[in-house]
Structures are given as C-alpha cells and as structure tokens.
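Think of the structure tokens as a kind of shorthand, similar to the way a musician reads notation: each symbol stands for something richer, in this case the local conformation of the backbone. In the example below we present two proteins back to back. Begin with the first one, reading the sequence and then the tokens, and try to describe in your own words what changes along the chain.
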Amino acid sequence: MKLDLTKIILTVVAVLLAVCAVRLPLPAVRADNPEPILQFDPEIRQIDVPGGSASLSGRVAIDSQTGFVYGFPTGGVAYPRNLQNNDLAVSRPILLGRFEIRNLPRK
C-alpha cells in the first residue's frame, strides 16, 4: 500500500486545526498597567488645596499614565512623620488637577 503525501499533509493540517479549535481559551493579558505610576517631585512644595480652603507643605506627585496631579501633605518635611508616638504616619493624597497627556505625540 502506497502512502499518499498529500493525504498525510492534509491530515496533519486537519489535526492541528482541531487542536487549535478545541484548546481552552487563555485568560486575557492586559497591555496597560492598571496601577498608578507616580512620579514624585523631589522638592517640598506649597500645596494649595482646590477651593482655597487651605495651603499645606508637602510633596507633589503625577500619575504618568493618567496625568492626575496629587499633593501629599507632609508638614514641610520630605516624608510623613509622626513625632508624638510610634504610630505610622500616613499622608493622604489630595487631587490637585490633571494634565491632558492623551494627546501627546507618540514616537
């Protein structure tokens, strides 16, 4: 019995297509990172709270993916500190504004 090369190739192609069709779908991989990527200004700045209700000293950070600008009050020092007790000092972000970065030219 003579083997026909065309039938063998077509059988292999059919088997491979069946494997591709039956294979379980893989979970989708997101190309964008949902976590904010903050770039902090190294200087301590005067943070004017929107609405003019207060002016605080602290650090300014920009989310490089969305363009949102946040102010982190630190009391005039480089990072949040609590000198009264051993509790962890936490500086809550204040939304200051947003840069429109979606329309920037891409390389």
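Once you have a description of the first chain, move to the second and do the same.
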Amino acid sequence: MKKAVLAGNDITAGILCDYLAEDDRYQILGATVDDGFADRGGVDGLETVALSRLAVFLPPQQGVVIMAMGYNDINRSRESMFQRLKQMGYSIETYVHPDARVYADLPLGEGCVVLPSAVIEPGARLGANSVVWSNVTLAHHCSVAENCWIASGAVISGYAEIQRNTFVGVNATVVNKVKIGEYNIIGGGALITRSTKASSVYLARSGEEHRFSSQDYVKYVGV
C-alpha cells in the first residue's frame, strides 16, 4: 500500500478521497495546498498541510502525491503545483480507478487521473497531469496533451488532438481528426467539427466561437 498525499483540498480532492477510500492500493495521509490556502476549504477526515511543511509531513522518498486540484485558470494552477512538487522531489502518481478501462499501448502521462467508466482506446495518448473524468471516451489514436481536463461524458474521437491546458466540458464531443488549440474552453454539450485556434472558447451544442479569448472569459466569467 502506497502512502499518498492529495495536492488540493477542495471539491475535487473530496471526490478523489472518497474513491481512494475504497482503493486498498493507497493510504491517504492528508492534503497539501499553498501556504496561503492552508486554512481554507478542507476534506473531511484529512489533515491539510501547508506546502512548505510537506517534506516534514511526508518526505519525498516515503510516499507519492496524487493531483487533486481543479481546473482553475485553464489548469494553470494545477500545472504550477505539479511542477513545484516535482522540483521538491516528489513522485506524482498516475491514478487509474479500478473501474476505468485503459487499452492504450503507450504509458499514461505522469500524474494523470482517470476515473470510473472512462475508456482509453488503443493508440490513444494522454499527457502528464491531465484529468479524465467518469464516462469519458478517448477514442483510438486521439491525443490529449498535458494539463488538460476532460469532463464527464466527453468524447474525443479518433485521431483528434487536444492541445495543452484545455478544458473540455461535460458531454462535449470533438470529432475525428479535429485539433483543439491550447488553452481552449470547450463548453458542456458542444460539438466541435472544425479545428480551433489557441485560447478560444466554444459554448453550447452549436459550437459557436465566443467573442472573448479563453483568458478573458476566465477573468470575467469563470469556468
């Protein structure tokens, strides 16, 4: 059984903690966040440890970290924490729930999280520090780059490409051979049939491009 700490202490961490409580491969000792957030949020039953104290609480050679942060700022916060933990010497665990189905021939990226009933088909690639939520399909030969979030029920079709730091919402579909630019926000239920440019926002089933860039959308509206 691996000793582990969750990176994050908000809703995503709480959900992962519930899954991990039923997974006898891991012993979850606590959650870690940046020092300024250590007294905010929290997961029931878990101690929150400021990042500056983490090496004392669980030294890098004695356990692993599971990324349990959300997709704030188009996954930039998650990316920053991932990189800093690696610089501290921690192994970032690739967590695949026992009820997920992974048939890809290539190793999953470091620090990925793959939740129940997700299917990753042969030839698919998944980059480091990306989240594949429940009931997602990553179809054959598609690729999802690092620091992405693929929400529940989304379908990434064959040979499609999702570039880094992109959020794909609930039940969205990206069709075959389409390339989604980096830092995109693809809204829930959107059907994307054409390739997109970087920092774009596509909302609703029609997949019409939003007038804001993704950075401005997060600033003024949020995700």
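Compare your description with these statements about the second chain. DSSP finds four helices and 23 strands in the chain.
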